[in-house]
Amino acid sequence: MKLNFRKSGTGKPLIILxxxxxxxxxxxxxxxxxxxxxxxxxxxxxxxxxxxxSADWNYDLMAEDLLELMDDEGIAxxxxxxxxxxxxxxxxxxxxxxDRVEKLIVADIAPRYYPLHHQVILEGLNAIPVNAIKSRKExxxxxxxxxxxxxxxxxxxxxxxxNDAGGFEWKINLPIITKKIExxxxxxxxxxxxxxxxxxxxxxNSDYIRPEDQESILRLFPNSQTIxxxxxxxxxxxxxxxxxxxxxxxxxx
Length: 253
Description:
Elements: E1 5-8, E2 13-17, H1 28-34, E3 39-43, H2 59-72, E4 78-83, H3 85-96, E5 101-107, H4 119-126, H5 136-143, H6 150-157, E6 160-162, E7 168-170, H7 174-179, E8 198-203, H8 214-220, E9 224-229, H9 236-239, H10 241-252
Parallel strand pairs: 2-3, 2-4, 4-5, 5-8, 8-9
Antiparallel strand pairs: 1-3, 6-7
Protein name: Esterase/lipase ybfF
Keywords: Hydrolase
GO molecular function: hydrolase activity
């Protein structure tokens, strides 16, 4: 699949993949800093942002999408960074294509299986009649009945776009994400480890990376280190962008 991406900057290629319900735009402010040192690729994964929709959706395919992008762009080897679902995609890719990855950064996710925990979000998104609403405020008012956090609602509604007729439509493939949400939590595993430098970067206020995850992290990524960004939760790049930028630069060099 030909993915939508935004390219900027100069230097070694750094490819960034967003998480579930997100898009390349989630990393735009961080990219404005990192593009001073690297050639940035901000990518919309399949069924998200401006990339194509497909009923086929799993980590094998998302990793192959990334391989196709790198081949099309003539990128022999790159730095990879992924957040949450994007972190699982880049882990899968690094384990499958280790020769194409120079260094790996995984943001607030571990290789383990995660139980379903997005049901309320999906209920809220599916409750919005996108063909009938006249404003984003209408959508927000409906979503507020399910999600109290203004910040989370604003993040989710970034995926509400305009269609050619001037109405609203989802940029995410909401029916397929709803139907196949269990794939997001699937564990990442491999027979052979990824031997190159890897940084697991968690939010100190998040429970996505737990002490017991170190066993699987070190088994699959033996040349890895795990750090935690203070005063940050799961969306660490939005909550503490300066700290994330510093850690990325220090790790990549």
